[in-house]
């Protein structure tokens, strides 16, 4: 195997142009799949960014409500005190929530609007890049990406929940491809709902050492009319719902991209192997056994795919970095599962594509090789 590996390395390095063309084709094919998988993973993560970064251990909602997207949850305001009284709860914060449109001039954007009590220790923006994280009466905190697109700055006004609000803070990491998150005072939000004594959700933190799932179950047992879930469970339910709504489209796109990538890899390896058929025929005529030929072409395929895979990982990482600084409200996450899928599938397809033309050499009469030489 060592001799086959050394010869494979020499063969690959003999023609630099052919090598670069092969590696380029494989790298671009792999990059396509990694990028599609990365965008899928990034979108899945962004879908639950507010839940994951809210600081809550438990989400308490109206009975039967188990996610945030496209739901209405209304609880009596007294539920907050009842939750605080449950053993294991360290703190509880009520929020009001609605999906609404933020308007600034001609720019309109969908946002999760959160009504936050003054001084709330959880539930607010987790990263402020400019201004204050605590909106007062008639004020709002919006995502920086929205502000940039709408060409508004601190002190400018936007329309949300049917009334004007002055921007006092710009947050970061609070936007996705679908929407952003905006924060307004709890009392302002309640006023738009006729000052009804209700809340949408109660966010709770548990005491050190307490189990979020266990405390959530105890809240459901002791507080009537609510559903309590750990943040992890609430986040998973939210992600599953939204991804199920678009899973077919995303799955088709990802599958097509993956199949195209494998076809490109197979064609690239096949052509590269077939182009050396005369060399393999000569080796056979000189007495090289068939098993050596197979080891040689498989080694070349593995080396080529490995090099192309490394280049693809670098390209995808670079693309992710570019997207990160381009303020596109998009995140590209390359997962270990995606890397494993691409590398393993690529190696299998490349091995098969390399072996097919080699079988022709394996069944060739050595005398024919000497007569025809490079005409093979």
Furnish the topology, listing elements before pairings:
Blueprint: H1 2-14, H2 16-46, H3 49-53, E1 58-62, E2 75-76, H4 79-84, E3 89-104, E4 107-116, E5 128-131, E6 139-143, H5 144-150, E7 157-160, E8 163-171, E9 180-185, H6 186-192, E10 198-199, E11 201-206, H7 212-222, E12 226-230, H8 231-274, H9 277-285, H10 290-325, H11 336-362, H12 366-372
Parallel strand pairs: 4-9, 6-8
Antiparallel strand pairs: 1-11, 1-12, 2-10, 3-4, 3-11, 5-8, 7-8
Helix pairs in contact: 1-10, 2-8, 2-10, 2-11, 8-11, 9-11, 9-12, 10-11
What's the quick description here?
The chain is α+β, with helices and mostly antiparallel strands.
Strand order of the largest sheet: 9-4-3-11-1-12
- Give the overall shape: elongated
Distance between the termini: 26 Å
Q: Percentage of helical residues?
A: 40-55%
**Overall strand count:** 12
Mean pLDDT: 83
Q: Major sheet, described briefly? A: 6 strands, mixed
What class would the helix/strand composition place it in? Answer: alpha+beta
Written as H for each helix and E for each strand, in order along the chain, the element string is HHHEEHEEEEHEEEHEEHEHHHHH
Gyration radius, rounded? 30 Å
How many helices does DSSP assign? 12
Strand content: 15-25%
Count of the separate structural domains: 2
Low-confidence stretches: none
């Amino acid at each position: 195997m060592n001799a086959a590996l050394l010869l494979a390395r020499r063969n690959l390095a003999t023609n630099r142009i052919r090598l670069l063309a092969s590696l380029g084709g494989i790298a671009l094919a792999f990059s396509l799949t990694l990028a599609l998988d990365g965008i899928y993973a990034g979108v899945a993560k962004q879908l639950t960014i507010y839940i994951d970064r809210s600081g809550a251990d438990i989400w308490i909602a109206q009975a039967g409500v188990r996610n945030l997207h496209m739901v209405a949850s209304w609880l009596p305001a007294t539920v907050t005190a009842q939750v605080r009284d449950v053993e294991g709860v360290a703190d509880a914060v009520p929020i009001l929530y609605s999906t609404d449109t933020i308007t600034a001039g001609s720019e309109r954007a969908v946002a999760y609007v959160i009504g936050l009590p003054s001084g709330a220790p959880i539930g607010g923006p987790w990263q402020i890049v400019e201004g204050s994280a605590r909106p007062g009466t008639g004020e709002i905190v919006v995502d920086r990406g929205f502000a940039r697109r709408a060409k508004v700055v601190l002190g400018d006004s936007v329309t949300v929940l049917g009334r004007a609000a002055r921007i006092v803070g710009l947050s970061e990491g609070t936007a996705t491809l679908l929407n952003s998150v905006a924060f307004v005072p709890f009392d302002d939000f309640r006023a738009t709902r006729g000052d009804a004594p209700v809340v949408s959700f109660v966010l709770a933190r548990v005491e050190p050492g307490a189990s979020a799932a266990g405390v959530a179950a105890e809240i459901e047992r002791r507080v009537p009319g609510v559903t309590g879930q750990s943040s992890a469970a609430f986040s998973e339910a939210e992600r599953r719902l939204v991804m199920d709504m678009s899973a077919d489209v995303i799955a088709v796109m990802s599958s097509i991209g993956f199949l195209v990538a494998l076809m490109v890899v197979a064609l690239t390896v096949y052509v590269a192997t077939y182009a050396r058929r005369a060399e393999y025929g000569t080796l056979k005529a000189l007495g090289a056994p068939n098993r050596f030929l197979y080891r040689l072409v498989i080694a070349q395929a593995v080396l080529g795919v490995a090099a192309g895979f490394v280049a693809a990982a670098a390209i995808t990482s670079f693309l992710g970095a570019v997207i990160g600084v381009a303020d596109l409200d998009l995140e590209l996450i390359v997962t270990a599962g995606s890397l494993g899928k691409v590398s393993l599938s690529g190696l299998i397809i490349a091995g098969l594509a390399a072996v097919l033309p080699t079988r022709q050499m394996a069944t060739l009469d050595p005398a024919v090789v000497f007569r025809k030489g490079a005409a093979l």
